[in-house]
Amino acid sequence: MTYVMSDLHGCYDKFLQMLEVIHFTEEDDLYLLGDFVDRGEAPIPLLLDCMERVNVYPLLGNHEAMFRGAVMDLPAEATLETLIDYLSEPQRELFGQWMQNGGEPTLLQYMALSPEQRRDILAYLAEFQLYETCEVRGVPFLLTHSGLEDFSPDRPLEDYPADAFLNARPAPSAEFYDDRFMVFGHTPTLTYPELHGRAEVIFKKTYINIDCGAVFTESGGKLACLCLDNMNVTYV
Q: Which residues have a Cβ under 8 Å from the Cβ of 100 and sit 6 or more positions away?
């Protein structure tokens, strides 16, 4: 089976629970559509787990982009107390943006790692793709973190800037390709007016949004997992 999840945001316990519920095995494939980190309790343990799984395919989210951009040049001797001294002015601005968007749990856990583990994490993040394509039971899919900003059906994917895959906010009425489904997260479906605050995967004519706000439990958020083989959705 081929599965898709998105926007785990450090919800490592929910991730492990979901793998049990769907009976995930080495014969299955799992695409994770970005935003592994920030906000939740265990972003770094989640990354360390996923980087050991050969059948988990990570996509870059805007939170990984902020995380990597803010810390990628830190020397081994940097500490929580001194790291700001090693950042360039653009990095300091990015660091502030990252902290404002829930980056503190990721930073604390990352800085607690050994220098070798930090390098491994950054090397893993460098492997994250902006998009993936796959075909399941004859149905083609395009997987991205946030959809596509300034979409044009005739525009090659390689011509879009990275930000178009990371920070798009498609309107509920948006339409994309007519020959494939786009699957993305980034915008919690809790915010879709038609769902009235319910955390549900939303299926539209040309796209599927699977971000059900896993980290926003106080608002009813859930982790959703979409099976591309049969379009079944599992929630935890």
A: none
Name every residue whose Cβ is closer than 8 Å to that of residue 234 and which is 6 or more positions away in sequence: 18, 21, 22, 224, 225, 227
* Secondary structure letter of residue 179 according to DSSP: S
Which residues are CB-neighbours of 80 under 8 A, at least 6 positions away? 107, 108, 111
180 SS3 class: coil
Q: How many CA atoms lie within 13 A of 87 on its CB side?
A: 20
Q: What is the CA 200 to chain-centroid distance, rounded?
A: 17
Residue 87: pLDDT above 90?
Answer: yes
Q: With 90 as the cut, is the pLDDT of residue 213 above it?
A: yes
Query: What average pLDDT does the segment 72-94 reach?
Result: 93
Read off the tokens for 61: 């989210």
Give the pLDDT confidence of 40-51 residue by residue, as tens digits: 999 999 999 999
User: Which runs of E-coded beta strand occur in 174-213?
Assistant: 181-184, 202-203, 207-209
Helix axes 62-71, 89-100, angle to 10 degrees: 140
